[in-house]
């Protein structure tokens, strides 16, 4: 009988009664075949592997991370709170040492959800990893965390949430943004002025196969994690790099995913995208589970897998080697802080964001106070095709007294001035999450 | 009248029940080396009271198959296994004649690699040379496509006394469970069938001619002896189920409740939701191997009347080990029964021996015999209470897969605790102190297990799987595999599952009035390829839930 070398908790929540639309990739059927495969393989009978029921994230868990306009209830459904709660349950299992590792096999995904939320982008409403991680930090205290996003799409939401956080190393491996949604994730995107180098992007060319992914992991990701010395490693485990995925152009395999999982050795994995629901997900998820549990995965492969047929070309190999060299050099000596202006001690950047899933356009001004004592109060002024001008203010974890005061001053002044429709405050120091509608 | 016999580890209990209640009962020591003798003796004792003609229905619960597996007297089995991609089938190896054959079926039931029949033939040769005469054939996802297993049966049947095919036991998934289920079925086939022959002969010799002769299953239901001959694994581990069914019969349980069966070595815990016993999600484990054999969901802890008491500086503990009978009955170490003896809650054997043992146990740590006894009883009660709490928590924490179930799912909240078994009455007052729920000790608990065996009714379950995109439908446990039209609906699927289940029950002679069919799962997933819907993936599970014959229930029930 099999026994997990690393005790593993699995939160399996397929949301069999939830879809964006009946034929949308995010539909009821998405994890059906994965469930069949895991059950047929007897994964939950393996000693040391435990199936867990998700927690339910609360509105406060969301409001700790996001500025949701007009409010949390308007941009989420129960499915999002369960999905985020599933990630929380996985994380709790690891932090409470009920298991060594945990995998939240949940949907819907979250890595395209940014700091400010007006609706759904890239099938995501709230960032389930961020909701999980900030809940962890509030419950268990400060920690240095590396998030490695292996979804085929750039994790632009997670990048945005952690842009100014030097204690969160965010590394995204993805298909080059010139060829795929959301069109971002270039090596020069390296984080805000107080967190420069804590964001790392590794764009890979279409056609990248196991070889290329594992090269990037070994050459870029693992050394950076080693330098960063995180307390916790999280894998945003998207599975749409698969050679059979219908909406991407990569050539990764179940074996490759399992190997990557073994090398990355993340404490917590959270499912993101992956839409080859019959040909890829059942095998990739099985590979991930076995790999995380420290079990033999050598027999896990897609029925139609022919490594030679999907192997990347020599040109792709050469390109990846060059990109990885550049990124390593940049990460060690980051130049920045990139696009933005310094005005009166604040660093400000303007963003125009499109929410493809809900067809919303947002115009946003993000400012961070360049403080010498902490990472600085954050301010978001945002309006969209759904909401008039709104304000979000955050005193981040470890904010100095001055910055906390400043956060409240801005929040209260905004209410008096009356130019904002909705105002929200995140005070991570005083654990106060307030909102006001003018 | 209905006769129930429960051959347990220690005792064989028999009972005869008529429309007016219990007519006769018997309690004998089980002869482990000759279970049949125990059954004959019990039957003879019943027949002597009521006459052989009185028995119209006979239900048996026996440990025979379990013993054969545990004691290694079962046959060697040739296991023919085909896995395809996934976990290495070697992980599920059982026995020395285990052959992994190339071949693969995927989750939708598509054959992705043909079965290597040449490899199967050479494996069969190896079996022949080793003198192996019973076989099991199991392929991954055979519940979705049984053809490869059926092909193996064709190959094996001419040289085999029994070929067990994985998909015939259940439509539920679990490759490793399916292997173990088919394997154990073939392993006990011969010994079980010999036993059936002998039982039938004994019944005839005693002049008993029941209309129905059935065996009890681990899920608390029955199946005709004749049917069980091909599926002996289903008769395994039915002992705990007999006790639980007994409680249902004796007490009119309508609410969420907990059943405690405090035996010699263990306390078995079962939970009822709205009066019906909970069934294991997957199946019971046999000899440490999970199977697909349906069973009542129970949990055991090593606290019983014969559990040894140990004393350390910090604590007095009961169990989990049993080192022999209580000292009062000549055992080597003080047990829970000795503690109860000392506290004058019961009077078993020689209480002086209980006292001496308890005193000797406490002396090195400066405890009086009385103190040890009291602490032991409290410890036993506390262990039971915390285990019950953990069990109920686990049931309520079971994974669910829809948002509706997560938000609205029913929670089990027991309001009563029924206690049965030897030390039940002795511990009831203490248990009442420990539990906030009402504690009840049914009166005729001594043979409740035999009553449960007598009044149990047939159970069966079917799982239907239809993939209208592929145009296939299977009901594995009934051997149904057919094509299906693209417009096949969930309602039609539910209807077909229920009808086929009803037809099957009728074919084995079950009284359909006594066997209400319920749908326990009905889901239908639109299947999409590209942007278009191409069909539906439909899953239905129907069952006849375990229960007792209503007509006789009133005769034996009492106010509990």
Topology (elements, then pairings):
The complex is a heterodimer of chains A (438) and B (560).
Chain A: E1 3-13, H1 32-41, E2 47-52, H2 59-63, E3 67-68, H3 72-75, H4 78-95, E4 101-106, E5 116-117, H5 128-140, E6 145-149, H6 156-161, E7 168-175, E8 199-204, H7 210-228, E9 232-237, H8 254-264, E10 268-271, H9 281-292, H10 307-310, H11 314-332, E11 341-343, E12 346-355, E13 360-369, E14 378-384, E15 390-395, H12 401-417, E16 422-427, E17 432-437
Parallel strand pairs in A: 1-2, 1-4, 3-5, 4-10, 6-7, 6-9, 7-8, 9-10, 15-16
Antiparallel strand pairs in A: 11-12, 12-13, 13-14, 14-15, 16-17
Chain B: E1 2-7, E2 11-18, E3 21-29, H1 35-50, E4 57-61, H2 64-70, E5 77-82, E6 98-100, E7 104-105, E8 111-113, H3 117-130, E9 134-139, H4 147-156, E10 162-165, H5 175-205, E11 212-216, E12 222-224, H6 225-228, H7 239-250, E13 257-262, E14 267-273, E15 276-277, E16 285-286, E17 289-290, E18 298-301, E19 307-311, E20 316-322, H8 336-342, H9 351-362, H10 369-396, H11 403-408, E21 416-420, H12 424-434, E22 438-440, H13 448-455, E23 460-467, E24 472-475, E25 480-483, H14 490-507, E26 517-529, E27 532-544, H15 550-556
Parallel strand pairs in B: 1-4, 4-11, 5-6, 5-9, 9-10, 13-21, 21-22
Antiparallel strand pairs in B: 1-2, 2-3, 7-8, 11-12, 13-14, 14-15, 14-18, 16-17, 19-20, 23-24, 23-27, 24-25, 26-27
Question: Which tags fit this structure?
Answer:
heterodimer; A: 438 residues; alpha/beta; Arginase, Chain A; 2 domains; eight-stranded parallel beta sheet; seven-stranded mixed beta sheet; 24% strand; globular; B: 560 residues; Nucleotidyltransferase, domain 5; Rossmann fold; six-stranded mixed beta sheet; 34% helix
Please, could you describe this protein's structure?
The complex is a heterodimer of chains A (about 450) and B (about 550). Chain A has about 450 residues and is an alpha/beta fold. Chain A has two domains: about 325 residues, Arginase, Chain A (3-Layer(aba) Sandwich); about 100 residues, no CATH class. Helix content of chain A is about 30%, strand content about 25%. Chain A has twelve helices and 17 strands. In chain A, α1 crosses α9. The termini of chain A are far apart. The mean pLDDT of chain A is about 95. Chain B has about 550 residues and is an alpha/beta fold. Chain B folds into four domains: about 100 residues, Nucleotidyltransferase, domain 5 (2-Layer Sandwich), CATH 3.30.420; about 110 residues, Rossmann fold; about 190 residues, Nucleotidyltransferase, domain 5, CATH 3.30.420.40; about 80 residues, no CATH class. Helices cover about 35% and strands about 25% of the residues of chain B. Chain B has 15 helices and 27 strands. The longest helix of chain B is centred in the middle third of the chain and has 31 residues. Chain B is globular and about 75 Å long. The interface between A and B is large, with 47 and 45 residues.
